[in-house]
């Protein structure tokens, strides 16, 4: 059973970005083998750019996670799940994913509610 490495980024307003890193890398490899040159139209997400965006907007409390999705689960499936039940998906990704960056708001730090 193969897995796909996914990068997921969301903030307090919902899902912002998702990328299937494995699929992009495979497509780049096959295109390179077919044409003999590295294709320009496939781009692996630059997670450092995602992190820079998150750090430049701390009021939005960004979170970036990497997760392994089993075969058959696509980026669209994860996007649909975030649209249907964003809190459940955020909690699930936090539980099974690998945190790359988090500026999650801690309710204990809130002085006035």
Q: Give the proportion of residues in helices.
A: 40-55%
Number of strands: 4
Task: Tell me the structural class.
Answer: alpha+beta
> Poorly predicted ranges (pLDDT <50, ≥5 residues)?
none
Strand order of the largest sheet: 2-1-3-4
Mean of the pLDDT scores?
Answer: 84
Distance, first to last CA = 47 Å
Total of domains: 1
**What is the element string, with H for helices and E for strands?**
EEHHEHHE
Supply the number of helical segments.
Answer: 4
Global morphology: globular
Radius of gyration: 16 Å
The amount of beta strand, in percent, is: 25-35%
Major beta sheet, specifics? 4 strands, antiparallel
How is this structure best described in words?
The chain has 113 residues and is an alpha+beta fold. It has one domain (3-109). It has 4 helices and 4 strands, in the order ββααβααβ. The protein has helices spanning 21-35, 47-56, 75-84, 86-96, and strands at 3-11, 14-20, 63-70, 98-102. A 4-stranded antiparallel beta sheet has the order 2-1-3-4, sandwiched between helices. Helix 3 (75-84) crosses helix 4.
């Amino acid at each position: 059973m193969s897995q796909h490495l996914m990068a997921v980024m969301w903030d307090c307003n919902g899902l912002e970005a998702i990328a299937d890193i494995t699929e992009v890398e495979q497509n780049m490899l096959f295109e390179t083998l077919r044409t003999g040159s590295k294709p320009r139209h496939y781009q692996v997400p630059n997670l450092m750019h995602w992190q820079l965006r998150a750090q430049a907007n701390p009021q939005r409390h960004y979170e970036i996670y990497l997760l392994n999705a089993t075969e058959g689960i696509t980026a669209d499936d994860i996007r649909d799940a975030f649209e249907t039940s964003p809190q459940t998906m955020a909690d699930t990704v936090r539980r099974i994913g690998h945190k790359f960056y988090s500026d999650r708001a801690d309710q204990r730090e809130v002085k006035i509610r």
